[in-house]
Structure formats: structure tokens, C-alpha cells
Amino acid sequence: MLKKTYDCFSVSIEDKIAHIKLNRPEVMNAMNKAFWNELPAIVKDIDVSAAARVIVISSTGKHFSAGMDLSVFAGDGNITHGKVDRHVAAEAFRSNVRQIQSSFNALEEARMPVLIACQGGVIGGAIDMISAGDIRWCTKDAFFCIQETNIAMTADVGTFPRLQRYIPEGWVKQLAYTGERLGADKAKEIGLVNDVFETQEEMLDAVMGVAREIASKSPLAVTGCKVLINYGRDHSTADTLDYIGVWNSGMFPPSHMQEAFEARAEKREAEFPDLLPLRTKPM
Questions:
Q1: Which residue in 130, 150, 250 sits closest to 194, CA to CA?
Q2: Where are the beta strands (DSSP E) in 81-200?
């Protein structure tokens, strides 16, 4: 079950919408060690328990997130002082990176859509984070920066495999090679965000409106859309069409369709069953 308090987030669930807020504005919501443990735990808990039909992620303060907190880079003293074989140290580094990567994988793997609302700076690891969500919006003061290049490293938590799915490869390369900032209007123009808003309040009103619309639909149909869109992104058209056939052969819901038609005819909200909670332990 979800905890009541977290070091880096506040979490609320209302009207089948889970709202996760980055909640360390005093340090620009930098991603410390607790962040990387708490985020996947929160998302997986919502997913496994089917506690919501959609997840909204927003932030507090001037900036969405300044990215990786420098404390995360503080490794084992033996490794940093050269007391361990460099090959063994490299393997440990790779494994640690994979663990961090899995924190954002949770957003992509969740059965329900993940909507992300950004303000101010979306920097470094925050690009990795929003790239793993389903839909993104921002305020007019937002800017996006692959900051890793500016500190002499290569982004490694998900920016490159995901970002080029949303924006042209040329823009990914320009942002990556230069470490420059991408403004809100250009982010919308090239497809990184769906829309730009004057204020965070206006943005959240709009995003919550989309979330409510998603939550009113059949959760089985929505999760099917997410699964099949993601599958189609990574596979050929022929393979995706085949998989859609397999999906619908097992999960096509005539009763849900009947409810949708009847609700529309009766001018009322349709009532659909929620997804079932998942097993958390082997039988």
C-alpha cells in the first residue's frame, strides 16, 4: 500500500486519478538517492493495486527538476580511490546505472497512462524522466536541456532511446551535442510537448481535464491502447497488426462496448470495471 509520506514526493488519489508531485522545490527537485527508490515504488504500487486509471506527474517550485543530485554520484570510497580493479568497478557502475534506469522504466511499464506537466527547467535526468511518460505538457517558461553533455558525460538513463521517438533525430543530436536549452514553443513545434500554457495553474487544469477524460473510459481499452502503441513503436507494422489480433482475441470486451453504447444513448457516464490488482508474490 502507498505510504502517507515520502522524502521526494507527495501523492494523492482522487476520482481514479493518481497525482504524484515532485516535492523538493528548495533544491529544484534534484533527484537524490531517495528519489530513485521512491518513484518506482510509488508507480508500481499504483499499478499493481490498480489504485488509479491514470497517473499525473507534476512538480513544485520554479523548476520541474534540476536532474540528478550530485549525491547520487558519490560512490564507494574504495572504487573512487582506485582500490578496486577498474574492470570490476566498471561492471558495478554498469549495474548501478541499470538500477537507476529501471526507475523510469516503471513509468513506461505501468498499465495506465502517465501524463507529465512541466514548468521551468527540465534538466538532465528530468529529460530521461519525461521521455518515459506517455504525454507531456509545459508552461511558457519551461526549457529542456540534456545537461549531461555540459558536465562531460553522456546521458545514460533513457534520453536517447526514448527522446528520438518523439522528436526528429536531428534535434536530438543538436540538443545532445551542444547541451543547449530547448524553449517551450520549439518543444511544442517539434512534438516534445502537446501544448504550452501561460501558467502552471492553467496547465494543471488542462492536464487534469485530460486525465478525467481518460479515467472515464474503459480501463481495459486504455491499457490496450498503451500496450499496442508501445508495441507498434518497437516492432514492424506486420508484427504489430498480428499482436493486435492476438490481444483482441483474448481481451475484446463486448460487455464494455455495450455499456459504452447504452451510456451514450442514456446520456450518462459509463461504468466500467477497473483493472484487477496484480499478484505481488509467487503462488
A1: 130
A2: 114-118, 121-123, 135-139, 143-145, 181-183, 196-197
Please count the other Cβ atoms lying within 10 Å of the Cβ belonging to residue 120: 22
Residue 84 clears pLDDT 90, i.e. is over it: no
219-265: CATH number: 1.10.12.10
Judge whether residue 81 has pLDDT over 70: no
As a whole number of angstroms, the distance between CA 86 and CA 79 comes to: 8
**What pLDDT was estimated at residue 75?**
57
**Four-way CATH pick for 9-215: 3.40.1440.10, 3.40.190.10, 3.40.630.30, 3.90.226.10:** 3.90.226.10
Q: Measured between alpha carbons, how far is 130 from 65 in angstroms, rounded to an integer?
A: 10
217 φψ region: left (φ > 0), alpha (ψ -120 to 50), beta (else)? beta
Measured distance CA(142)–CA(125) in Å, rounded: 15
Q: What per-residue string of b and e applies to 255-271 under the rule 16 or more CB within 10 Å gives b?
A: ebeebbeeeeeeeeebe
